[in-house]
Amino acid sequence: MVQKAKILLVDDRPENLLALEAILSALDQTLVRASSGEEALKALLTDDFAVILLDVQMPGMDGFETAAHIKRRERTRDIPIIFLTAINHGPHHTFRGYAAGAVDYISKPFDPWVLRAKVSVFVELYMKNCQLREQAALLRLQLENGQSGRTGAAAAQEPAGLLAELSARLAAVEEQAEALTKQLDESADAAAVATAAHLERKLTGLRRALDALEPGAGSGASPLPAPS
Question: Keyword set for this entry (predicted)?
């Protein structure tokens, strides 16, 4: 069973959170509410999120300050943030949002379909990245198990079989990532395109590591990457 991605919704107004839940419920992912910046940071301590929808205008810790805290933490700094704001103060205000680390900046009222489409892209990228991490972890575990307590022909044959199986699984992830990249045409968000390119680079690194472990590839193989 594929685990659902978590989406963090941050807004101090309950009616806005309810509206976001109504818009995003069609994605069939796990929606997590936070009514303040402090509450959002607390949720980020324990859970992993595919994307954060963050209201700019909040009492106390506003969206800009919350985003700054998120980007300073190693655990959360790579989570995409979409800023939502009810007012538009012009280019300077928008620039401040991007400077704070947002991948997008949307003014209310927004088109529900557009918002849902933007969020779905980051959810899909997150899911592909999770698959990549799982494949890398499985490869390490199976290689370690295959190399311990084995001698002779059994030690040589089992890793080869594991490599073939993992290579096929990685190929499936590569195919899905390639299809996703093709969907991100010139009209897509630059941040989504950049994230997809980053995912493809990780896949390329893992593929090179697998190829280096193939019989006859030599003993100078690089260590397996640790996708994040």
Answer: Coiled coil, Phosphoprotein
Burial profile 154-175: b = 16 or more Cβ within 10 angstroms, e = fewer = eeeebbeebbeebbeebeebbe
What pTM value is reported for the model? 0.65
Q: How far is CA 19 from the centre of its chain?
A: 24
What does the alpha-carbon distance between residue 98 and residue 91 come to, in Å, rounded to a whole number? 11
Top pLDDT among 200 and 48 is at 48
Per DSSP, the chain holds a count of helices (H) and strands (E) of 7, 5
Phi, psi angles (nearest 5°) of residue 151: -135, 160
Cβ neighbours around 83 below 10 Å, total: 25
Residue 197 vs residue 113, higher pLDDT: 113
The predicted structure's pLDDT at residue 207: 74
Q: What is the mean pLDDT of residues 58-67?
A: 91
DSSP SS3 for 207? helix
Non-local (6+) Cβ contacts of 84 within 8 A are 11, 53, 54, 55, 56, 106, 108, 110
- Predicted confidence at residue 67, as pLDDT, reads 92
Query: From CA 136, how far away is CA 199, in angstroms rounded?
Result: 13
